[in-house]
Amino acid sequence: MLGAISCQKKEDGPVKKITYKGPTVETSNVLTLISDSARLQIRLKAPLEQTFESGDQIYPNGMNVLFYSKDGTRVDNTLQGKYGKFEKAKNLYTVRGDVQVGNKEKQQKMYTEEMFYDKQKNLVYTDSATFAKVVTPTDSLTGYGLTYNMVTGIYRFHRPTGVFSAQLPSGK
């Protein structure tokens, strides 16, 4: 009679595969320049950039972005915040924490806690429930749900609040 005895513990099933979901690349003191037809369009600075396998990027220590004029010679708009994220599939930036957007030419500053930047549409906007403030040389406007067109420099609130001045047409 023959018998086989094993000292190994019988495995309960297949070993669960562990998938790494963290960043594949981590870069310090990032300076990213984006151009179109050899003209500077965007300059992004961040102390830390984490890039993931999907192409998404996170800026956990904040970001500072300069948007240049069409000819690339002057800064038209600025965007900064304490945290940033770029979603490659949506071509969308999310910026959080003391977010500030500025328009140099119109001397406008926008303040909020969370803002989105759509690269394709050149729009900066907040969620409709997010409070925002716009300061110009003549007014300080507040409201909920801000949309700002970076090309035209025109902004609008979905639900404006606060006090602002209005100019009546002359001759009436």
Automatic annotation (TrEMBL):
Gene Ontology CC: one annotated term: plasma membrane
Pfam annotation, one family: LptC
Any one GO molecular-function label of the UniProt entry: lipopolysaccharide transmembrane transporter activity
Superkingdom of source: Bacteria
Stored InterPro entries: LipoPS_assembly_LptC-rel, LptC
Designated name of the protein: LPS export ABC transporter periplasmic protein LptC
